[in-house]
TrEMBL record:
It comes from Amphibalanus amphitrite. This is Tc1-like transposase DDE domain-containing protein. InterPro entries: RNaseH_sf (IPR036397). GO terms for molecular function: nucleic acid binding.
């Protein structure tokens, strides 16, 4: 899911793997820079963070935090990030029509 303009996210090997796996992604030439609210990864990590720290949980160590993050990631249904990616084209079109702030939740 290339979510920013990092070269590695658009490397031929990366794009080929995404296409073969049927993962939707935004083409580099359609991916606007510096618009984090259009990037599903920002929303996704917001969900992860919320779940990790749910109920006021605090990590006692880096290892404990890593383990908690891994548990949360495993608990997220596969369709959640897929749905986020599928909404990107419409969010980009809305931002083009109405301005970037229109794409905020």
């Amino acid at each position: 899911m290339p979510s920013d303009l990092a070269a590695a996210h658009y490397a031929k090997k990366t794009v080929t793997l995404l296409e073969e796996a049927g993962v939707p992604f935004v083409a580099r030439d359609e991916n606007p820079p510096c618009v984090p609210q259009l990037r599903p990864i920002e929303e996704f990590w917001g969900i992860v963070k919320q779940e990790v720290y749910k109920g006021g949980w605090r990590a006692a160590s880096e290892v404990q935090l890593k383990n908690r993050i891994q548990r949360v990631l495993r608990s997220i249904r596969e369709e959640v990030p897929r749905t986020m990616m599928e909404r990107v084209p419409e969010r980009v079109r809305r931002a083009e029509r109405r301005g970037v702030n229109s794409s905020l939740h």
